[in-house]
UniProtKB/TrEMBL annotation:
It comes from Machaerirhynchus nigripectus. It is found in: Membrane. GO terms for cellular component: plasma membrane. This is Transmembrane channel-like protein. Residues 47-57 have a biased composition (Basic and acidic residues). The chain crosses the membrane at residues 135-157, 233-251, 326-348, 377-400, 412-432, 569-588, 635-654. Keywords: Membrane, Transmembrane, Transmembrane helix. It comes from the Eukaryota.
C-alpha cells in the first residue's frame, strides 16, 4: 500500500483526480484488475512470439546469442513436416526475391542520382522543387499514354489497315452545308523552309492537319476486325479519365504533406522545439549550403520572434490605428483589383484583335509570315508580360499592408497564382466570346461563328499550343540572356553596383508557379490537342536540366527558404487549384458550346456531352432503367443523405482523434512534472 500512496502524490495522479472532480483513491485502477493483467500478459506473449518468428539477424541480440538462436531455429525446422518445410523455404525465397526486385527498381527511378546530388548540396527545400518537376513529367507521360492508346492509336491502325481495320464516316444530318466546310491552312506546293519554322511555332500549316490537333480525329467509328470502336465515346471518356487520374494522384500525394503540415502548425512551442532540436538537415554536405542552412534557421527564429512581437503590437493597437491600417489595406486591394482588371481587359482586347486579324490574314495572305506570326503570338506575349509585372507590383505593395512575414509570403503567392491562372481563363473567355459571337445572324445555321471558326476546337488547341511553346521559349531565354550574363558580370566585374545586385536567387515558389502555369495549360489543351501531354513531358524533361544547370552554376539558394514538407504541400495545393480551374473551361466546352460540324469526332452531336445519352440509349432496356434510376431524384436524395452521414461520422472521428492527441500532449507534460517530482523526492531522501 505504501508505494500506491506514494504514486498518488504524483502531479499526474492529482491532476486526474481534480479533472474527475473527486478525491477517491484509484487503488484498483493503479494495481490493475485480473482481466487487465491477463490482457497485458497475453499482449506480451504475442509480442515475444512475433519476435521469435523473425530471422536471427533481425533480433536485437549479440552475435553469440544470434548464433544460439539460429541453431535452435534450425533444430526446430528439422522436426517440421515436408509441407511446412516447403512453405517456410518458399516464403523465405519469395521475400528475398521481392527484396532484390525492390533494390533493383530503386535504380530505375527517374533522376535518382541527380536528386541525391541536389539534396546533398542544397538541402531538401530545393530538392522538393525538382521532385515536384519529376512528378509532373510522370503525370504527363501517363496522360499521353492514355490519349495515344485510346484516341490516336485506333485511327493510326485503321488508316494503315492493320488487323483488317477500317474507318467509318457518318455524314452529319440536318446540318447546313456551309457548316461542314473546313479547309485547313496546310502548306501546298513549293514551301520555303521558314514557313515550316513559322508553322512549328504557331501550330498552323502542316501541323494543323496532323494528329496533334482535334480536327484530325474526324472519325465516327473504327472497325477493328469484328469489333466496332466508338471513337467519340472513347475520346470523351479518356478526357474524363486523365482529369480523374490527375485529381486522385494529386490528392494522394497531398495527403502526406497535409498531415506533416498539420502536425507542424499544431503548436507554436512544438514548432520552436523542432527548429531548435530537429531543424538541421543532415543531407547537406556542401560548406556554403551548410552556412546557408544556419542563416535559414537563424532567420526562421528571428521571424518567429518578430511575429510574436507583431501579434503583441496588433493586440495593443488603438481604434484610430486599426482604422488607418484597414483603410490602407482596402485602398491597396482596390489598386490590386484595378491592376488585375487592366491585365484582364488587355488580354481580352489583344485576343480579339489577334483572332480577327490572324484568321483574315491566313485566308487572304495580306500580311507577311513574320507579321502574321507576331499577331498570332500577341495574346501569349501579353499574358507573359502580365505574369512578370503583376508579381513585382504585388511584392512592392504588400510591404505597406502591415501583415506578419509569414502571411505576407502566402498572400503574395496567392495573388501571383490568381494572376497566372486567371489570365488563362480570360484568354478562353475571349475565345469563346468570338466563337459564340452571333451578331448579324453569324451563328444561325451552326450555333457558332462558323465563318471565322469552321473548326473552333482546333483553334483553341492552337492557342494552348502557342501558350505552351512561348512559355517554354521564355524559360529558355531567361538563363541565356539574364542569368548567365549576370553571373559573368558578378564574377569578373568589380563595380559596386553590380556586386550589390549579386547573383540571382533560386526562388522555389516562382519556379513552381511557372511550371504549374504550364501544367494548367496542358490540362485544358489536351481535349483540343490530344498529343499536348507529350510536348509537356519533353518540355519538363528539358526544364529539369536547365534548372539544374542554373542552380549549380549561375544562381544561389534563396536567403528565405521554405521547409520541404510545407513546400510540397503548398505546391500540390496550387496544382490542385490549377486542375480545378481546368475543369471549368473543359466543362463549358463539352456541355454548353455547340461542337464543330466540319471536324472532330463530335460533328454529329450538338455538344460533346450528347454522346453519353446517345450511347446509353443503345444499351439493353434493363440497364437503361438502372442508369436512369441512378440519375433520378429518387436515388440522388438518399445517396446525398448517406454521404452526409458518412461525412459527419468522419468529422466526429476526427474530433475524437484531436481530443486524444490533446490528452496525450497533456500526459507528456504531466510525465515531465512527475519526473521533476521524483527527482525532488530522491534529492530530499538523500539529504
Amino acid at each position: 500500500a505504501a508505494p500506491v500512496d506514494f504514486l498518488q502524490e504524483l502531479p499526474s495522479c492529482q491532476s486526474a483526480r481534480r479533472r474527475r472532480g473527486g478525491t477517491q483513491e484509484r487503488r484498483p485502477a493503479l494495481l490493475g484488475t485480473a482481466g487487465g493483467r491477463g490482457a497485458v500478459a497475453r499482449a506480451q506473449q504475442q509480442k515475444r512470439a512475433e519476435l521469435a518468428a523473425r530471422p536471427a539477424r533481425e533480433q536485437p541480440l549479440s552475435i553469440a546469442e544470434k548464433r544460439t538462436l539460429r541453431d535452435s531455429q534450425q533444430a526446430e525446422t528439422e522436426r517440421l513436416s515436408r509441407w511446412k518445410k516447403w512453405r517456410r523455404t518458399s516464403s523465405k525465397s519469395l521475400k528475398k526475391a521481392l527484396s532484390e526486385v525492390r533494390g533493383l527498381s530503386s535504380y530505375l527511378v527517374l533522376w535518382r542520382h541527380d536528386m541525391h546530388s541536389i539534396e546533398g548540396k542544397f538541402g531538401t527545400g530545393i530538392q522538393s522543387y525538382f521532385s515536384f518537376l519529376r512528378f509532373l513529367v510522370l503525370l504527363n507521360f501517363i496522360v499521353f499514354i492514355l490519349m495515344f492508346s485510346f484516341v490516336t492509336l485506333p485511327i493510326i491502325i485503321s488508316k494503315h489497315g492493320i488487323f483488317n481495320s477500317t474507318i467509318a464516316y457518318i455524314s452529319p444530318k440536318n446540318t447546313d452545308d456551309n457548316c461542314t466546310i473546313y479547309e485547313p491552312s496546310g502548306n501546298k506546293g513549293l514551301v520555303y523552309f521558314y514557313a515550316y519554322i513559322k508553322d512549328l511555332f504557331s501550330g498552323t500549316g502542316f501541323l494543323e492537319v496532323t494528329s496533334l490537333f482535334y480536327g484530325y480525329y474526324t472519325v465516327d467509328a473504327v472497325q477493328i476486325s469484328i469489333m466496332r470502336y466508338n471513337l467519340p465515346l472513347a475520346y470523351l471518356l479518356t478526357t474524363f479519365a486523365y482529369l480523374a487520374l490527375s485529381f486522385l494522384w494529386i490528392m494522394k500525394r497531398s495527403g502526406e504533406g497535409f498531415m506533416q503540415n498539420l502536425v507542424h502548425d499544431a503548436d507554436p512551442f512544438q514548432s520552436y522545439c523542432n527548429k531548435v532540436f530537429a531543424g538541421w538537415d543532415f543531407c547537406i554536405t556542401d560548406p556554403s549550403a551548410a552556412q546557408l542552412k544556419q542563416r535559414s534557421l537563424q532567420y526562421e527564429l528571428q521571424m518567429d520572434l518578430q511575429e510574436e512581437k507583431l501579434k503583441q503590437k496588433i493586440a495593443e493597437r488603438t481604434m484610430k490605428e486599426k482604422l488607418r491600417i484597414y483603410s490602407l489595406r482596402i485602398f491597396i486591394n482596390i489598386i490590386v483589383i484595378a491592376i488585375l482588371s487592366g491585365c484582364f481587359y488587355s488580354i481580352y482586347r489583344v485576343t480579339v484583335f489577334s483572332q480577327e486579324n490572324s484568321n483574315v490574314s491566313i485566308r487572304s495572305d495580306t500580311r507577311t509570315d513574320s507579321t502574321n506570326l507576331l499577331v498570332q503570338y500577341l495574346p501569349s506575349m501579353v499574358i507573359t508580360l502580365a505574369n512578370f509585372i503583376g508579381p513585382l507590383i504585388f511584392s512592392f505593395l504588400i510591404g505597406f499592408e502591415d501583415y506578419t512575414p509569414a502571411f505576407e509570403i502566402k498572400l503574395t503567392l496567392m495573388r501571383c497564382v490568381f494572376v497566372r491562372l486567371a489570365n488563362i481563363g480570360v484568354l478562353l473567355f475571349s475565345l469563346w466570346s468570338q466563337i459564340s459571337d452571333c451578331g448579324a445572324d453569324k451563328c444561325k445555321p451552326c450555333g457558332y461563328n462558323y465563318k471565322l471558326y469552321p473548326c473552333w476546337e482546333s483553334d483553341v488547341g492552337q492557342e494552348m499550343y502557342k501558350l505552351m511553346m512561348f512559355d517554354f521559349l521564355v524559360i529558355l531565354a531567361v538563363p541565356l540572356f539574364v542569368n548567365i550574363p549576370r553571373k559573368l558580370l558578378v564574377t569578373h566585374s568589380s563595380c559596386k553596383v553590380i556586386q550589390w545586385f549579386g547573383l540571382q536567387e533560386f526562388q522555389i515558389s516562382d519556379n513552381v508557379l511557372e511550371i504549374i502555369y504550364g501544367q494548367t495549360i496542358c490540362w485544358i489543351g489536351t481535349f483540343f490537342s490530344p498529343l499536348l501531354p507529350a510536348i509537356a513531358t519533353i518540355k519538363y524533361f528539358i526544364i529539369f536540366y536547365i534548372k539544374k544547370v542554373i542552380l549549380i552554376h549561375t544562381c544561389k539558394p534563396a536567403a528565405r527558404p521554405i521547409r520541404a514538407s510545407g513546400s510540397n504541400f503548398f505546391f500540390l495545393v496550387v496544382l490542385l487549384i490549377g486542375l480545378i480551374l481546368a475543369f471549368l473551361p473543359l466543362g463549358v466546352s463539352i456541355a454548353r458550346i455547340p461542337s464543330s460540324k466540319a471536324c472532330g469526332p463530335f460533328r454529329n452531336f450538338n455538344t460533346s456531352w450528347e454522346v453519353i445519352p446517345h450511347t446509353v440509349l443503345e444499351f439493353p432496356t434493363v440497364l437503361q432503367q438502372i442508369l436512369f434510376g441512378m440519375a433520378s431524384e429518387a436515388f440522388a436524395v438518399p445517396f446525398f443523405m448517406i454521404i452526409c452521414i458518412i461525412m459527419f461520422y468522419f468529422i466526429a472521428l476526427a474530433r475524437a482523434h484531436k481530443r486524444v492527441v490533446e490528452q496525450l500532449r497533456e500526459q507528456l507534460v504531466l510525465e515531465s512534472h512527475d519526473k521533476m517530482f521524483l527527482i525532488r523526492k530522491i534529492t530530499e531522501a538523500q539529504r
